[in-house]
Inverse folding.
């Protein structure tokens, strides 16, 4: 099957300090729709492409899932880091 | 008994409670790291818990006073070396390891076990260093839910000098980078346990350690235990999470000095 120039979904998971798109990003995962693609924890300094979710919106990313805010809440316990936004770009990947 | 010079001080303990790790470079005998690394390089199978029988020189690391001093400070004079230990050999070309906390989720406020990660040779960024995330040790997060995280603010690759031992809170989030170098990366993981609750602090403690006034100007650059416990925020989390962290840290501190929190 010829997949050249087919529109594919690029995914970006951003974990923000708060549910606001203007809060600082604490976690970053980019997933390219390319066979064999692997994410990578940096063994050195990681250069953050965006500082906020809003920075990504400015670059054309679209939010496909906002953080769940109705999950069980504890006023004493801590769970995952930040609030997860999932974003996409539909682009032709050659 | 161990000489007090090897014990941690209040600032060290406060920083451990905030960051979840403490690194030492013990003054090991000349040639010991190289001998251990050479023996590990030559292994053809992983001996599991028997790594200390296969490479008995490892006991010299565990018994070094700079190592014992950290363990006594955080786990008490009667800490034990758990029988579980493991040689982590990361081969050239091997990929990254996802973030995880060891074991299941049962987070408490007692410092009752530590991991000790010993690196017999110098680790560079391309050798697949262990990567830790300071400040995550109190998070009750199943490892499965970390699968969508890759790079996290404040993460620290343990690109360290030969002979380094990194002590981590048992629940600190950790993973590894990939090994894109041409050499094997060795790390021996040890586990240490507390065997009794503290009735007094087991480090070089000043009873006035937390009595310095709040310093709103220094905040996360504070140099005293009280302000470190109050203002430290290595992940840069929100106010809600930060307040919870403060409460948990203080409960840990109180247990370590032998005074359980009222809550």
């Amino acid at each position: 099957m010829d997949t050249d120039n087919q529109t594919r979904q690029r995914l970006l998971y951003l974990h923000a300090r708060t549910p606001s798109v203007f809060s600082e990003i604490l976690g970053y995962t980019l997933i390219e729709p390319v066979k064999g693609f692997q994410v990578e924890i940096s063994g050195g300094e990681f250069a953050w492409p965006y500082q906020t979710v809003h920075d990504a919106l400015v670059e054309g990313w679209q939010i496909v899932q906002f953080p769940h805010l109705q999950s069980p809440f504890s006023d004493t316990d801590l769970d995952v880091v930040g609030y997860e936004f999932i974003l996409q770009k539909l682009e032709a990947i050659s | 008994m161990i000489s007090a010079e090897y014990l941690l001080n209040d600032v060290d303990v406060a920083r451990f409670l905030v960051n979840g790790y403490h690194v030492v470079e013990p003054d090991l005998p000349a040639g010991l790291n190289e001998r251990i690394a050479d023996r590990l390089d030559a292994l053809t199978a992983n001996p599991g818990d028997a790594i200390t029988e296969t490479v008995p020189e490892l006991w010299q690391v565990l018994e070094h006073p700079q190592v014992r001093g950290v363990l006594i400070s955080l786990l008490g004079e009667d800490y034990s070396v758990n029988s579980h230990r493991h040689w982590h050999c990361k081969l050239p070309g091997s990929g990254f390891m996802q973030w995880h906390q060891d074991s299941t989720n049962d987070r408490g406020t007692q410092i009752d076990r530590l991991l000790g990660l010993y690196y017999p040779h110098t680790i560079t960024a391309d050798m697949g260093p262990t990567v830790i995330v300071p400040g995550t040790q109190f998070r009750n997060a199943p490892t499965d839910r970390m699968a969508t995280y890759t790079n996290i603010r404040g993460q620290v690759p343990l690109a360290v000098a030969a002979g380094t031992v990194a002590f981590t809170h048992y629940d600190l989030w950790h993973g590894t980078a990939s090994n894109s170098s041409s050499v094997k990366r060795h790390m021996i993981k040890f586990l240490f346990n507390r065997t009794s609750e503290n009735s007094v602090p087991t480090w070089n403690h000043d009873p006035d350690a937390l009595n310095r006034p709040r310093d709103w100007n220094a905040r996360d650059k504070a140099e005293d235990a009280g302000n470190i416990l109050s203002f430290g925020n290595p992940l840069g989390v929100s106010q809600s999470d930060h307040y919870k962290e403060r409460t948990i840290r203080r409960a840990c501190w109180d247990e370590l000095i032998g005074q359980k929190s009222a809550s």
User: Anything to note?
Assistant: The two ends of chain B are 34 Å apart (CA to CA).
